[in-house]
Design brief:
Mean pLDDT: 92
CATH topology of the largest domain: 434 Repressor (Amino-terminal Domain)
Shape: elongated
Number of domains: 2
Strand content: under 5%
Order of helices and strands: HHHHHH
Number of helices: 6
Largest sheet: none
Helix content: 55-70%
CATH class of the largest domain: Mainly Alpha
CATH architecture of the largest domain: Orthogonal Bundle
Structural class: mainly alpha
Low-confidence stretches: none
Number of strands: 0
Length: 105
């Protein structure tokens, strides 16, 4: 599939230079190729979210700040009363894989 996308990308770029294909179309094709390198967001239970938080010695407040959510939201996730949105879940996935340091300045 990747080779096919790369051929389509090359063709779109050539047609873009001729003014036949829009810049947005080329950008969409480029994004599709690069999206294949991004891992899928892994669903996590409340227990696993709490486990990640404790493993890295993070308080609920700190995890809330990193994810851009409220402390109440983090608490609800950990009690399985609600689920994090995809953006917050991706951040927790990254913390699980690489540690919270990637978000610290």
């Amino acid at each position: 599939m990747t080779e096919r996308l790369k051929r389509i990308q090359g063709m779109a770029q050539r047609y873009n230079k001729l003014g036949v294909v829009k810049d947005e179309t080329v950008a969409s094709i480029d994004a599709a190729i690069h999206a294949r390198d991004i891992p899928a967001v892994r669903e996590m239970s409340g227990g696993l979210i709490k486990e990640v938080r404790i493993r890295y010695n993070l308080s609920q407040s700190v995890l809330a700040m990193i994810t851009g959510m409220s402390v109440e939201s983090v608490s609800k996730w950990e009690r399985n009363e609600s689920k994090p949105n995809k953006a917050a879940l991706r951040i927790i996935n990254i913390i699980d894989a690489k540690g919270p340091e990637v978000f610290m300045i």
